[in-house]
Amino acid sequence: MPVPPKIPANFANAVDLSSLGKPKVEVPTTMPGIEVTATNLSSEILPLSKTKPVILICWSPRSRESLEVVTALALLQKKYEGAWELGTVNADTETQVAQALQLQTIPYALAVIGEQVVPLFDKPFPEAQLKLVIDKVLELAAQQGIGSVPEEKLEPEEEAAMAALEKSDFATAEAEYKKLLNRKPGDSYGKLGLAQVQLMMRVAALDAGEVAAKAAINPNDVAVQIQCADLEIVNGDVESAFNRLLRCVKNLAGDERSAAKDHLLNLFALVDSADPRLMKARSELASALF
Predict the structure, then answer these.
(1) Cross-strand pairs, 113
(2) Is residue 56 within 8 Å of 87, Cβ to Cβ?
(3) Which Pfam families would you find in this protein's record (predicted)?
(4) Which residues have a Cβ under 8 Å from the Cβ of 168 and sit 6 or more positions away?
């Protein structure tokens, strides 16, 4: 197969997929999006990438995780209403394509924008994180004059919550996010919105200076330490908030230790899962507990 323009040639390297096991899930008879082959990679995918970004997901019928990513991307593609195209690469059968893309692991996702290949990720992600990746791809493509960044569509409850927040009506905003989660229990943006509103409700009446002074004098008062951690999160001092509650988990016992741990987990939900401060705190919490 001739090497597609601007795609790295790596035909001499073998693709190591030996770690994959036997089929664990039923493979759909028809895969979503465009099934990428050695033929249409050059004739269809590359030309298409000049009009809209194409996201390629390399999968294998022997990898449950890769099929789950394919399914998640297919659902997201429908939500974006044609803003980008999905291409699927079966690494077991399309070995030339896999080698041309320098595939080393499954799942593996790339974006093709104006015939340029951009590596995206090589591990499964939940839908919320996949959406963030796609938004970045669309933003990058728009900067190059390819497609446009779609307007964010909010759920009706989110719109009502945002309107309430503009009036500092935290109670109504909280109620709207709870309505959204009752209707869509797994909605990640609803969960984040609710957690943010509840944080604002907790700190609204607090005096930051007074709380900080009490926390310094009473290091083992878990209620005060929780208040101080909330204020630190609001002010962007994430590491201090995490360390404060980690100290409580390490030094306290019984219900107080549990309260510190539970609140720390609530604060984790307010921070990007890729934030190194969060990953460090998670590791320290696990060490403290086990």
Answers:
(1) 116
(2) yes
(3) TPR_20
(4) none
**Domain residue ranges of the chain, discontinuous segments joined by +:** 34-143, 154-204, 206-290
- As a CATH number, domain 34-143 is 3.40.30.10
With beta carbons less than 8 A apart as the criterion, state whether 260 and 226 touch.
yes
Full-model pTM: 0.54
Cα 181 from Cα 152, distance rounded (Å) = 19
Is domain 206-290 given the CATH code 3.30.450.30 in the classification? Answer: no
* Model confidence pLDDT, tens digit, residues 202-251: 999 999 999 999 999 999 999 999 999 999 999 889 999 999 999 999 99
Residue with tokens 């990438």: 49
Closest CA to 152 of 167, 162, 164: 162
Alpha helices in the chain (DSSP H): 40, 46-48, 64-79, 95-100, 127-143, 156-166, 170-183, 188-203, 208-217, 222-234, 238-251, 254-268, 276-289
